[in-house]
From TrEMBL:
Family: Belongs to the heat shock protein 90 family.
NCBIfam families referenced in this protein's UniProt entry, alphabetically: PRK05218.1
Protein name: Molecular chaperone HtpG
Cited Pfam families: HATPase_c_3, HSP90
Keyword terms: ATP-binding, Chaperone, Nucleotide-binding
Matching SUPFAM superfamilies: ATPase domain of HSP90 chaperone/DNA topoisomerase II/histidine kinase, Ribosomal protein S5 domain 2-like
Organism: Flavobacterium bernardetii
Length: 626
């Protein structure tokens, strides 16, 4: 037996590890199982090239709880260690003195790859253990070793009688960490971090029902067999080649990732690249609709099949954070506890690759089955529209597949939209005016007026549409968007067809004075000489002001404070209508009654007549029927 001091020159290394390095104590099990997995995969490699004269066999990793003895065992059948290797890899903190480590850590908590540099994964055991033992037997023909440490720099290292290859780590669980002796807690951690580890992980046993014999009667009682309980799937779908998988396999894996999710995903995107970095993964488009407040943190980040986090900001482009799935890369630089992403050129490359891959897949889906793509548009549009606003590289490719649906359920790309509307909706200044509605029901009367003119009306109802059309207008010369209720249709698409006014200037002035005496100041009265059959009173919202307000409310892009401004409306009065003439000719109370009723009807068509005003209007209307 030998004893000595671990090669650290700072006596309080263990309290520092426990307190500062790892913010989350539960990750100790992930780190120790990862070490066991590495040891097993190293053995597999050495046997495959003939350097290890031993049978690889079918090794597993086993987790055992000894509740009475307050011990947790992590056992692997991997490469094992000799006494010299224990001295080298465990006692010397992978050749690095603690001072060097502490200096680097204190200088920057963002030092990348710190686990690999310092071999600190094993020492996470001391976050939960008052004493740690290692029993290890190398694949080499050398005696087994037994290492013990109680959390101080003191250790013992002596030969041991262990005969089977591999390593067993025994954690003597500290009094403040006894929760890690509970079966449910360990199962929870294994499911969270190790569900897809590449080596089978055994945790206890389970009962499996034996097949019912063919000759069994109605009184047959099922018989059960006690079998090993393996908690992981060592060969998950994302680690396979796309050519190996069918659509059913992708859907099955989706439900393996999200057991409580009953809806099927709309489609998936398989990520698979090995240069200039390694990255695999599968992203799923769930049904999203138009809600920007979708739950994020649904994409899981793995490193070599070890779960790291479900906060993938920085790796996955922001607009895709609403998706679900898995991303796995050994090249993602993380801090010591794997809880934080480091600034690194690879990260941006990975993000750019994912953006490009998603765009290419969407284009392929669009080209292969446009009808199906159109049917799914409402469920995916919020992601794609957000991507156009937030990722220039995605925006460049989006023209090939982003759709603009009409109120008649036709779908155009931007290029198709320009081509189809240019003859009918180009105004006198050569500008193509794209009409749109944000609510098909609420703006029905305005849509109807536009259709009577032979115009197409888009249905753009996502919460970020104001930002999107602002960008489209900036990037497309002679293209403008106007909501159908922003003005009278003849003003929205001005064709230079001027109507002669039936009223003289003095009559118009008198009419406006009469209107403004009754109509609230929230409405700006505009007299227009329109077709005599056109609607007499129309309430509109100025496009620019409304758009800026919406942009401010949905975040960014709007003028400061505009989101809190009161709604502003125009009241467009058709001076050539019979109603305008009747108002002009009416006297006092009769005139006021006409104006009030006409305004209420206009407000009703915009969904603005509510509460007490609506009740009074209904009551008045019934009175006229008597």
């Amino acid at each position: 037996m030998t004893s000595g001091k671990i090669n650290v020159s700072v006596e309080n290394i263990f309290p520092l590890i426990k307190k500062f390095l790892y913010s989350d104590h539960e990750i100790f099990l992930r780190e120790l199982i990862s070490n066991g997995t590495d040891a097993t995969l190293k053995l597999k490699h050495l046997t495959s090239i003939g350097e290890a004269k031993t049978e690889y066999g079918n090794p597993i990793i086993e987790i055992k709880i000894d509740k009475e003895g307050k011990k947790l065992h992590i056992i692997d059948q991997g490469i094992g260690m000799t006494s010299d290797e224990v001295e080298k890899y465990i006692n010397q903190l992978a050749f690095s003195g603690a001072e060097e480590f502490l200096n680097k850590y204190e200088e920057s908590a963002k030092d990348s790859g710190i686990i690999g540099h310092f071999g600190l994964g094993f020492y996470s055991a001391f976050m939960v253990a008052s004493k740690v033992e290692i029993f290890t037997k190398s694949f080499k023909e050398e005696p087994a070793a037994h290492w013990t440490c109680d959390g101080s720099p003191e250790f013992t290292l002596e030969p041991h009688s262990k005969t089977d290859r591999g390593t067993e780590i025994v954690l003597h669980i500290a009094e403040d960490s006894l929760e890690f002796l509970e079966e449910f807690k360990i199962r929870e951690l294994l499911t969270k971090y190790n569900k897809f580890m590449p080596i089978p992980i055994k945790f206890g046993t389970k009962k499996e029902a034996l097949p019912k014999p063919e000759d069994a009667g109605d009184d047959y009682k099922p018989e059960y067999l006690e079998v090993d309980n393996f908690i992981n799937n060592p060969n998950p779908a994302w680690m396979k080649q796309p050519t190996e998988l069918k659509e059913e396999d992708y859907k099955s894996f989706y439900h393996e990732l999200y057991p409580s999710q009953f809806e099927e995903p709309l489609f998936n995107i398989h990520l698979n690249v090995d240069y200039p970095f390694n990255l695999t993964g599968i992203l799923y488009f769930p049904k999203l609709g138009s809600d920007l407040q979708i739950q994020k943190d649904k994409i899981q980040l793995y490193q070599n099949q070890v779960f790291v986090t479900d906060n993938v900001e920085g790796i996955v482009p922001e607009f895709l954070l609403m998706l679900k799935g898995v991303v796995d890369s050994p090249d993602i630089p993380l801090n010591v506890s794997r809880s934080g992403l480091q600034a690194d050129s690879n990260v941006k490359k990975i993000s750019n690759y994912i953006t490009r891959k998603v765009a290419d897949k969407l284009k392929a889906l669009f080209n292969e089955n446009r009808e199906d793509f159109e049917a799914k548009w409402n469920d995916i549009k919020i992601v794609l529209e957000y991507g156009m606003l937030s990722e220039p590289k995605f925006y460049e490719k989006a023209g090939d597949f982003v759709l603009y649906p009409t109120t008649e359920n036709k779908h155009y790309t931007l290029a198709e939209l320009k081509e189809n509307l240019k003859d009918s909706q180009t105004d006198k200044d050569g500008k193509l005016v794209v009409l749109y509605a944000s609510n098909k029901e609420a703006q029905h009367s305005y849509i109807d007026i536009a259709k009577e003119k032979g115009y197409e009306v888009l249905l753009l109802d996502s919460p970020i549409v104001s930002h999107l059309i602002q960008k489209l207008e900036a990037d497309n010369e002679n293209l403008t968007f106007a909501r159908v209720d922003a003005d009278h249709i003849d003003k929205l698409i001005n064709k230079e067809e001027t109507q002669i006014s039936k009223l003289s200037d003095s009559e118009k002035e008198s009419l406006k004075t009469s209107l403004e005496a009754v109509i609230p100041k929230a409405y700006s009265v505009q007299l227009e000489s329109l077709d005599s059959e056109a609607t007499p009173f129309i309430i509109t919202q100025p496009e620019f002001m409304r758009r800026m307000k919406e942009m401010s409310q949905s975040g960014g892009g709007g003028m400061f404070g505009m989101g809190n401004m009161p709604e502003m409306y125009n009241l467009v009065v058709n001076a050539n209508s019979e109603l305008a003439t009747s108002i002009l000719q009416a006297k006092d109370d009769a005139q006021k009654e006409l104006v009030k009723n006409a305004l209420d009807l206009a407000k009703l068509s915009q969904g603005l007549l509510k509460g007490e005003e609506l009740t009074a209007f209904v009551k008045r209307s019934f009175e006229t029927l008597k």
